[in-house]
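We emphasize that the prediction below concerns an isolated chain of 70 residues; any contacts that depend on oligomerization or on bound cofactors are therefore not represented. The input was used exactly as deposited, without trimming of termini.
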Amino acid sequence: DTLTTITVKVQHSTDGSSWADLCTFTAFTANGVEQKFATTTVNQYRRAIVSAFTGTSAKVSVGFKSAWAV
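Result of the prediction step, given as a token string:
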């Protein structure tokens, strides 16, 4: 049995203790790819939380790129 669905939530924090949702990726299926853009200030600390997992195995990769306005 392989991955059926998975939800990944990206959270951010100013202090590493209190976390707020930044964006959520949902309804992934096998070999799914999704990209999001933050429309708000992103705090110093970030983490990814995997939840709502159904299936027996999955590989998740979360990357973060900062863009600077010129």
